[in-house]
Automatic annotation (TrEMBL):
Keywords: Signal
UniProt protein name: DUF4382 domain-containing protein
Location of the DUF4382 domain: 36-180
Source organism of this protein record: Litoribrevibacter euphylliae
Any Pfam family: DUF4382
Signal peptide: 1-21
UniProt superkingdom: Bacteria
Length: 300
């Protein structure tokens, strides 16, 4: 099964660094405003099929105020994170309670070590074999998210980036590439949807439930007719892998870090090749309205 798509172009912004206190270093200056707030940033994952692990080595985070120069937080040592471990509501913290001037910010950039140089700093592991992950960006590497956020005076801005591996890892000319498919959410405004998938449905829909028990696709909006991942609307906003809970002997899923609103969820065990328009069989398509901080429930 292939869940990889062709690589799209990406614009990267250089970083300038000076030292600061805390876990790393920072540079640049935000626009003058009435006070400071704190900034926390974590990363989570919407998983990709067929991979044993997807490890990305992060070296820092850069943010751009609406006015003023970009500000960079560089880690004292690189952070190697297996993104496949950040599922079902799990997340890994990149920046914790860093002080920023209150005001509006235009974008976030994740600095990573990911280039084709024979060093397994960022890699994907498939069937026990590791392959380098590469961002074809020359000497500057990174993943830029063009989503704004706000720091309020004396407030704590706590955000999570959903790193959608189904869209971010591409296979091009025999090499694995990393391109950005990132979604920024405010942790104060998100909820999650969890549920069970009937074992009889899985046995019918899946060729071998022991190796693959399907995925729940999440579409933004109510009444959406579900479709595969093919670059054309409707595209899934996120997805959640169905896994077997040995303690309760049931198949479960959790779609987390979803902003308040209406969603359409649907289950499939068919293979989704992101490079072509597949005809997938979806089951149990249903709408869910999610409130901020709430946990919705939907069984299939």
């Amino acid at each position: 099964m292939s869940a990889f798509k062709r690589m799209l172009p990406m614009v990267l912004i250089p970083m300038t660094l000076i030292s600061c206190s805390g876990g790393g270093s920072s540079s640049g200056s935000a626009s003058t405003s009435s006070g400071n707030g704190t900034f926390t940033l974590s990363i989570t994952d919407a998983p990709v099929d067929n991979a044993d692990s997807v490890v990305v080595e992060f070296t820092g985070v850069e943010v751009k105020p609406a006015e003023g120069e970009a500000i960079s937080f560089t880690f004292d040592s690189p952070m190697s994170i297996d993104l496949l471990a950040q599922q079902n509501g799990n997340s890994a913290e990149l920046v914790s309670d860093e002080t920023l001037s209150a005001g509006s910010y235009n974008w976030i950039r994740l600095a990573v070590n990911a280039e084709e140089d024979g060093v397994m700093d960022s890699y994907i592991e498939i069937s026990g074999t590791q392959f380098e992950l590469d961002i074809p960006s020359g000497s500057q590497t990174g993943l830029k998210l063009n989503s704004g956020f706000t720091i309020t005076a004396s407030g704590n801005a706590d955000y999570t980036i959903d790193f959608d591996l189904r869209k971010s890892v591409v296979l091009a000319s025999g090499d694995y590439k990393l391109r950005p498919s990132l979604r920024l959410v405010d942790n104060a405004e998100v909820g999650s949807i969890s549920g069970e998938v009937d074992a009889t449905l899985i046995a019918t829909a899946c060729a071998d439930a022991n190796t693959y028990s399907g995925v729940v696709y999440v579409f933004s909006g109510a009444g959406i007719t579900p479709d595969d991942l093919d670059g054309a609307d409707p595209e899934p906003l996120s997805s959640a892998t169905v896994s077997f809970d040995e303690d309760d002997a049931v198949y479960t899923y959790t779609a987390a870090f979803l902003e308040a609103g209406d969603y359409t969820l649907s289950y499939t065990c068919d293979e989704d090749d992101g490079e072509v328009d597949d005809t997938l069989i979806f089951n149990g398509t249903s709408d869910v309205t999610l409130a901020a901080g709430a946990t919705g429930t939907l069984d299939f």
